[in-house]
Design brief:
Elements lengths: L7 E7 L3 H12 L6 E7 L6 H6 L6 E4 L5 H10 L5 E4 L5 E2 L3 H11 L5 E9 L5 E2 L1 H12 L3 H6 L9 E3 H6 L11 H12 L3 E11 L5 H4 L1 H15 L4 H30 L1
Parallel strand pairs: 1-2, 1-4, 2-3, 6-9
Antiparallel strand pairs: 4-8, 5-9, 6-7, 6-8
């Protein structure tokens, strides 16, 4: 079976994430999988990240140079890739044990499958699981996936997505002009051509902290989400309106979580 498993490339965009990047790299290098590579594309970090990268010797491939943002870093990484299967993992996230094998075996067993979605949990800066209700909601959504519901709400977590290199190239890859929600744009282009296959297991942990792009740029992320959905909706105003309402719902929910957490500290 090992000889039939496709090579996996993981691209890890990075900028001043030395606090978390070793845990992210170790979670990839510890995978029980016969053929994979990790490419770190660093944007010119000044926080000690380069010393951490050097400490891995030839176990990883990496570059560090000024770039034009996360999308540019991801594009650079995939241009260097040798694998048949692509995914990216941010430098503050974690890959779950066994995730590469689950993905590789699925692609090998179902050669018609062009991309896979799977479950992702959320953790805080200390690695503690948080927002479990969000995770359960996304689990339910993935199990009832349709292109239309995905247009209405972005419920697929990027680090839980793996795709064939040929599919990535066929849809034009990551759009370097998009700096927020570029994963949503890519996945919608994939979804317009092929339905994803669900691997019903957890494959990654998504870290939320004050310096993370999702938290720091939450309004920009939702604004980009909305514009991307609008671009792909093909003039279906009802879909666009539903997406706008869903974004408002999510923002309200996270504000409620923050308010509840603040009250717990007081009482």
């Amino acid at each position: 079976m090992n000889a039939e498993l496709p090579m996996i490339t993981i691209v890890m965009p990075s900028l001043n994430m030395n606090r978390f990047i070793r845990a992210a790299i170790d979670s990839v290098l510890s995978q029980d999988y016969p053929s994979f590579e990790l490419i770190v594309t660093d944007g010119g970090s000044k926080d000690g990240t380069l010393d951490t990268l050097r400490s891995y010797g030839d176990r990883i491939r990496w570059i560090s140079e000024k770039d034009h943002g996360q999308s540019d870093a991801i594009i650079k990484g995939f241009r260097m890739a040798r694998g048949e299967i692509y995914s990216w993992l941010n430098a503050d996230d974690i890959s779950e044990p066994g995730s590469f094998r689950a993905m590789g075996e699925c692609f090998a067993q179902y050669p018609e499958t062009q991309w896979i979605m799977s479950h992702v949990s959320e953790i805080d800066e200390h690695g503690k699981e948080i927002n479990r209700w969000v995770t359960r909601y996304k689990q339910w959504r993935l199990r009832h996936y349709s292109f239309h519901t995905f247009l209405v709400e972005n419920y697929i977590s990027q680090m839980g997505v793996f795709m064939r290199r040929s599919a990535y190239e066929a849809v034009g890859g990551v759009n370097g002009q998009i700096q927020y929600a570029m994963d949503y744009d890519l996945e919608l282009r994939l979804a317009q051509r092929w339905n994803p296959k669900l691997v019903d297991r957890f494959v990654a942990r998504f870290r939320l902290h004050s310096a993370s792009k999702t938290v720091a740029g939450v309004h920009k992320t939702f604004a980009s989400d909305f514009q991307i959905a609008k671009n792909h909706a093909g003039g279906r105003r009802f879909i666009v309106a539903l997406h706008w309402l869903n974004n408002k719902k999510i923002i309200f929910a996270y504000r409620a979580i923050d308010a509840f957490a603040a009250l717990k500290k007081i009482f």
